[in-house]
Amino acid sequence: MHRAGHTFWKLAGTGPVGERLLERVDPAASRGERDQGSFEKVSVAPGGVACLCCARMSEIANFVMHGAAQVTPVTLERMLRNLPMWKVEFAQINAPQFPHLVNQLEFLADIVEDVAEGAYKELTYHALAAAVFALTYAHRKNDLIPDFMGAAGRADDSSVVRAALILHEKAFTQYAAKHSINWEEITSKP
Asked: Residue 93 class from Cβ within 10 Å (0-12 exposed, 13-18 middle, 19+ buried)?
């Protein structure tokens, strides 16, 4: 079952802000020889095993966590001034290959606005920073894959937004529930 070059992970527990910690599993090694020291913050079904090398979600998740760590109150303030224009821009995205992207961006923008206005106070700073980073990244025209490249240009935007949603799924689902938003319409699962 194991394909060469694929890394497998199993659920090792839950981190301090609800993220699921994964443990590297070497299918060729005996149980006692398995590497117990490598953890990544990635979401999988409880008790499940995931093959992550194709999607490289762990690398994208690390990219999002690093970007979110750079978010400051000044970054947030600048983004909030431009967010109404960004929301119009996001609503015009035509990316049928990424059917949830527009809804996900609108969802994250609404969260950021609600937190900034004081209408929602339960969101952790880590989740807020990830939302700010994802929105800022999606707005950039010249990111890892420039948006003028057509469908491929939205692939990185979608991956960054999905990673932010997955990393802070618990916090975001609580917001969705409190505001009667159907999480299935926002979910990171296509």
From this structure: middle
